[in-house]
Write a structure and sequence with these properties.
Aminopeptidase
């Protein structure tokens, strides 16, 4: 049975109590990406860092009366190109039992409306190599391909790395 989006769901900020379910969603997401290895402790630590410091970003959940259906993770930073605050959309995941029914679009539209309301200047999507379905989904929701190419320099595991405090 599929939930009726308008009647039975709501989108709200995630809470610390939601962490175990959010971690499970991320574990599912990262299991499908070749760049990442699902690690319960890393995902728990990363989400907790966001939830405990709202200036770092927001995690919103799409919730029914009985469970979390999906989540979106928005990280805040400053763009010198844009001259102001921007968002990095790092994670958007819908529980496997609810995919294909518009819940991802509902969550993404909420995030876009939030960004506009808070006067962010851009949302940059970080995603694994996208299949055609993902390209259609994000294009339908206003995203455009960019010539920017992400590159990484691994500096150690998050357990080994302290949080930089500046300077």
């Amino acid at each position: 049975m599929v939930l009726c989006m308008q009647e039975l769901t709501r989108i709200e900020p995630a809470t610390i109590e939601d962490l175990p379910i959010l971690v499970e969603l991320l574990m599912d997401l990262f299991a499908r990406e070749s760049d990442f290895r699902p690690d319960y402790n890393n995902q728990m630590r990363g989400l907790r860092l966001i939830l405990e410091q709202p200036s770092r970003g927001r995690v919103f959940v799409l919730r029914s009366a009985s469970q979390i259906i999906g989540m979106i993770n928005l990280l805040f930073t400053i763009s010198t190109a844009e001259g102001g605050f921007v968002i990095i959309l790092e994670d958007l995941i819908i529980h496997k039992n609810f995919r294909g029914h518009g819940f991802g679009s509902q969550l993404l539209r909420y995030a876009i409306d939030y960004a506009r309301e808070k006067s962010f200047l851009r949302i940059t999507l970080l995603t694994h190599r996208m299949g055609e379905d993902s390209v259609v989904f994000f294009t339908k929701n206003g995203f455009q391909r960019s010539d920017m190419v992400p590159m990484r320099l691994w500096l150690g595991s998050s357990a080994e790395t302290s949080i930089p405090l500046g300077g």
